[in-house]
């Protein structure tokens, strides 16, 4: 009985990982590829660790597997957020059929200022005076030439 | 049981080959970073399958360390992309 459960978990884990790989190959741009890789990859690791804890059926191994699962579930969104943010900052092209890009008119890639669109006139004046403020994050030099 | 273990090893190896294709094709550097991160996830899952295959529970520790290094590598690459100088994809 427990063997069948382990087999089912291992099969579904490997198939989810294969789906993540196919998604990362076939999807059109960075954000959709991250969508495929983070969620399906984390689910694949989770299922494999559950299978391992069922196979050994030992409290120490169960605790270790649980630690791996919790660690993956905490770190995968953080890493995806960091890479997605860096990708947007360096100007990775997004898919031509993207429906919504809320930052495109409010965000200034040179000064890294994000505007809400509801600024008063004084705030805009302060912003214009500080335009030569050197940004902490440099944008790739290739995009500036175009 | 043995067949399922071999099948999942084969599936994960195929996934690694597909991820390597994206790693080589990847038009920009962030695409390659995402592919590397998924490659590390596949390696962690493969270590779990290997622990079941060899019936050795110590390999779960290796999975913990592999997941930790993968996370640190992803964060380091993201910092490099944000702060780094001129890139050549």
Keywords:
heterodimer; A: 146 residues; mainly alpha; 2 domains; two-stranded antiparallel sheet; 5 helices; B: 89 residues; 3 helices; 0% strand; flat
Describe the structure.
The complex is a heterodimer of chains A (146) and B (89). The model of chain A has no long low-confidence stretch (mean pLDDT 84). Chain A has helices spanning 2-26, 30-56, 59-89, 121-129, 141-145; strands spanning 107-108, 113-114. Helix content of chain A is 66%, strand content 3%. With 146 residues, chain A is mainly α. By secondary structure, chain B is mainly alpha-helical. Chain B has one domain (2-83). Chain B has helices at residues 2-25, 29-54, 59-83. The chains are: A mainly alpha (146), B mainly alpha (89). The interface between A and B is large, with 57 and 53 residues.
Question: What is the strand and helix layout of this fold?
Answer:
The complex is a heterodimer of chains A (146) and B (89).
Chain A: H1 2-26, H2 30-56, H3 59-89, E1 107-108, E2 113-114, H4 121-129, H5 141-145
Antiparallel strand pairs in A: 1-2
Chain B: H1 2-25, H2 29-54, H3 59-83
Helix pairs in contact in B: 1-2, 2-3
Q: Which ranges of chain B are low-confidence, i.e. pLDDT below 50, for 5 or more consecutive residues?
A: none
Q: How far do the termini of chain B sit from each other?
A: 44 Å
Total individual domains of chain B: 1
Shape, principal axes of CA atoms of chain B: flat
Domain module tally of chain A: 2
Please tell me what the overall shape of chain A is. Answer: elongated
> Number of DSSP helices of chain B?
3
Helix/strand/pairing class of chain A, anyone? mainly alpha
Give the N-terminus to C-terminus distance of chain A in angstroms: 64 Å
Rounded radius of gyration of chain B (Å): 16 Å
Q: Structural class, from secondary structure content of chain B?
A: mainly alpha
Biggest interface, chains and residue tallies: A-B, 57 and 53 residues
Number of helix segments of chain A?
Answer: 5
Rounded average pLDDT of chain A: 84
Instruction: State the oligomer.
Output: heterodimer
């Amino acid at each position: 009985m427990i063997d069948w459960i382990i087999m089912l978990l291992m099969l579904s884990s490997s198939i989810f990982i294969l789906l993540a790989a196919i998604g990362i190959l076939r999807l059109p741009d960075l954000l959709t590829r991250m969508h495929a890789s983070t969620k399906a990859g984390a689910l694949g690791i989770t299922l494999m660790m559950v299978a391992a804890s069922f196979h050994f059926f030992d409290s120490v191994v169960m605790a270790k597997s649980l630690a791996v699962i919790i660690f993956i579930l905490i770190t995968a969104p953080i890493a995806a957020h960091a890479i997605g943010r860096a990708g947007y900052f360096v100007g990775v092209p997004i898919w031509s059929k993207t429906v919504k890009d809320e930052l495109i008119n409010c965000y200034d890639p040179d000064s890294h200022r994000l505007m809400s669109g509801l600024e008063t006139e004084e705030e805009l004046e302060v912003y214009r005076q500080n335009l030569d403020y050197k940004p902490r994050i440099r944008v790739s030099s290739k995009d500036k030439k175009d | 049981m043995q067949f399922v273990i071999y099948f999942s090893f084969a599936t994960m190896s195929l996934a690694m080959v597909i991820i390597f294709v994206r790693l080589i094709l990847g038009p920009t550097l962030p695409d390659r970073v995402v592919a590397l991160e998924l490659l590390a996830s596949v390696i962690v899952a493969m270590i779990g399958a290997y622990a079941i295959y060899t019936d050795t529970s110590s390999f779960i520790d290796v999975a913990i360390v592999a997941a930790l290094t993968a996370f640190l590598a992803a964060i380091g690459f993201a910092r490099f992309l944000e702060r780094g100088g001129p890139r050549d994809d």
